[in-house]
Specification:
Layout (H helix, E strand, L loop, with lengths): L7 E5 L4 E5 L3 E6 L7 E3 L10 E6 L7 E4 L6 E6 L3 E8 L8 E20 L2 H4 L4 E5 L2 E6 L2 E8 L4 E3 L4 E8 L3 E10 L10 H17 L8 H13 L1 E2 L4 E2 L22 E2 L3 H11 L2 H15 L9 E2 L10 E2 L13 E2 L10 H15 L8 H15 L18 H20 L7 H18 L1 E2 L4 E2 L26 H13 L26 E2 H13 L3 H12 L11 E3 L4 E3 L5 H20 L1
Antiparallel strand pairs: 1-2, 2-3, 3-4, 3-5, 5-9, 6-7, 7-8, 8-9, 9-14, 9-15, 10-11, 11-12, 12-15, 13-14, 16-17, 18-19, 20-21, 22-23, 24-25, 25-26
Length: about 600
């Protein structure tokens, strides 16, 4: 039976991540990077596509689980008829080799444990050759090699193209497993002391979490979301992936299944704001530096997303041998949206670099010249239609959010030049552009009869992205057009419990796709922000509390939520959802401190 998306927890080493189910099975792991091919892909198929289960014999689901303090070390407790054990899962921050460590610890009584390791390289399609070597089980296929050992040694045997073991654990006894990957042409990886690795991991996470400057009633939720964002960071470059998974569906059984193992420019401003406000200057600077490297070059070639190191080619491919999560096919790797025109990203880049400079992140000498180049290109392009923030696969349109972000780009340039007149640039030119964009959006993107901004020029459809209009400063929160837009989005895109869809998928071909999707969690947090900014503080806090209650038992959120089925949807965990959570919580905390 397919586990729910929220039944999974995340472990990772700041270069890749794994999903561990409540049944004790690791069903998703890409090695050696987030965007590498998976060696455990049961999440998107079945057990024959690769997994690693470690659980009491005959048990189906752990009794309870949690992260150890403010860390990414997962502890699952199993209470059985004969005794209790806990399984500790984590990935040490690597020096060279990625490792997965699983430690079984007896609590009381005696428990018979069972482990099944089924490795399948290349997204679950290749069965490796298994052999024994120097106390390890070694799996090799093409460029990939995985080594498995245990401390103390546990007898293993081959069974139906998997490696199986069975052993008993009594109170205070420990059995540790270490799985290590390395290129198959390399020698055996260095041995990892699993217990020392655990101590180091807990210490590292404790030191990192202690840097959080957030206080108040939402601190725990903020810290868990920040840890999740840190876990989604590719350490060598500072890039933050949107999610560690691909093709988890936005509709069960539907085709809205996308690869999110890349870095989106749209996340940049919100991510920087969250990191800087919470006290993580180093991570914010690394993200800013990744952004500068990724967007360098001809502004006409600016993409909406890039690979972990800024790679540009992310070709979209379907994997027909994987049936998809709960039958939701196709399974895709790569993302064709990389080739779309999304004008809003120019505003997001300008806003990010403006914010970074305001917050004291030392500027790069070439950064301002890059911004002028981007703005010059946008000046000639902002009147054109595009695919918009939501990466629609229908016709290009004049999306209101895209135009608003063009205004943001010009506005940030004006404010930068006003603050530092020594910088090169024509402030009058950018003021003219800013005023022209503002005038056109208010004339063509606003429906005066309904009192709301619309999704695109001339439409009756709404878009939750217009909730960001007061946040970016396009109009003040008390402007009647803002108040009307917030009310319209709440009424037309909201569910009875306040969750918000991005836009309507009913009776419109705006996104060019069949089917529907769940409520978009980031948009629901945006509604909280907009409600608070427009004076509906009590309603905003009530909705925020409902959103916090949607997190799974270890505090994680996917991209979307199905309010009818009561389950999470989409890639998991989703950076955008956790960024929105952090920013909303920080806004409440700021109000409490000021009040």
């Amino acid at each position: 039976m397919t586990q729910r998306i929220e039944d999974y927890a995340l472990i990772g080493d700041l270069q890749t991540a794994a999903l561990v189910g409540m049944d004790g099975s690791i069903d998703w792991l890409c090695l050696p990077r987030f965007d590498s091919a998976a060696c455990f892909a049961a999440l998107l198929g079945d057990k024959e596509n690769g997994h690693w289960r470690l659980a009491p014999k005959g048990a189906t689901r752990c009794t309870r689980r949690s992260y150890v303090d403010d860390s990414l070390v997962l502890e699952s407790v199993w209470e059985t008829r004969t005794g209790t054990v806990k399984v500790i899962d984590f990935m040490p921050q690597r020096d060279v080799t990625p490792d997965v460590v699983r430690i079984v610890e007896g609590v009381n009584g005696e428990v018979e444990m069972e482990a099944v390791l089924r490795l399948r390289f290349d997204h679950g399609s290749i069965v490796p050759w298994m052999r024994r070597s120097d106390g390890h089980r070694v799996a090799v296929a093409g460029p990939d090699s995985v080594w498995l050992r245990s401390e103390p040694p546990v007898k293993t045997w081959g069974q139906q193209f998997s490696t199986v073991s069975s052993f008993a654990v009594a109170a205070d006894e420990r059995v540790a497993f270490v799985l290590s990957w390395h290129p198959s042409h390399h020698q055996r990886p260095d041995l990892v002391d699993p217990h020392e690795a655990l101590r180091c991991s807990l210490s590292d996470w404790a030191q990192w979490s202690d840097r959080c400057q957030v206080r108040g009633r939402y601190r725990d939720a903020v810290v868990r979301s920040l840890i999740t964002l840190k876990a989604l960071t590719y350490g060598p470059t500072g890039g933050i992936v949107a999610a560690p998974t691909t093709s988890l569906p936005e509709e069960i059984g539907g085709v809205r299944n996308w690869d999110y193992r890349f870095c989106w420019l749209r996340d940049s401003t919100l991510t920087l704001g969250a990191l800087l406000t919470a006290g993580y200057q180093e991570e914010a600077a690394a993200w800013r530096d990744w952004l500068l490297r990724a967007v360098a070059g001809d502004p006409a070639d600016l993409q909406i997303m890039y690979g972990l190191a800024g790679e540009r080619r992310l070709p979209e491919t379907e994997l027909p041998w994987l049936a998809g999560y709960a039958g939701s096919a196709p399974v895709r790797t790569g993302n064709a949206a990389v080739d779309q025109l999304q004008l809003d990203v120019y505003g997001e880049v300008m806003d990010s670099l403006f914010l970074a400079a305001q917050e004291g992140i030392p500027s790069e000498r070439h950064a301002w010249f890059l911004q002028l180049s981007l703005l010059g290109f946008l000046e000639s392009k902002w009147r054109e239609p595009d695919e918009g923030l939501w990466e629609v696969r229908g016709p290009r349109r004049h999306f209101v959010h895209s135009k608003v972000m063009a205004w943001v780009a010009a506005d940030r340039a004006v404010r930068t030049l006003e603050a530092d007149p020594s910088l090169r640039g024509d402030v009058a030119r950018w003021r003219t552009m800013r005023d022209e964009v503002h005038r056109e959006v208010c004339e063509k993107g606003y429906d005066p009869r309904r009192g709301t901004f619309t999704q695109y020029y001339g439409s009756r459809e709404l878009d939750a992205a217009t909730l960001l209009i007061p946040r970016v400063g396009f109009l003040p929160p008390d402007d009647p057009r803002v108040v009307g837009t917030v009310a319209a989005v709440r009424e037309e895109l909201g569910s009875p419990d306040g969750l918000v869809r991005r836009y309507s998928t009913e009776g419109t071909a705006v996104d060019g796709l069949p089917g529907s999707e769940g409520a978009f969690l980031a948009c629901s947090f945006w509604l909280v922000d907009a409600e608070r900014m427009t004076g509906r503080t009590e309603e905003a806090r009530e909705l925020f509390e409902r959103l916090l209650a949607l997190r799974n038992d270890v505090g994680l959120l996917a991209e979307e939520y199905d309010p009818v089925a009561g389950r999470q949807l989409g890639n998991f965990p989703q950076a955008f959802s956790h960024i929105a959570l952090v920013n909303t919580a920080l806004a409440f905390a700021h109000e409490e401190q000021a009040g």
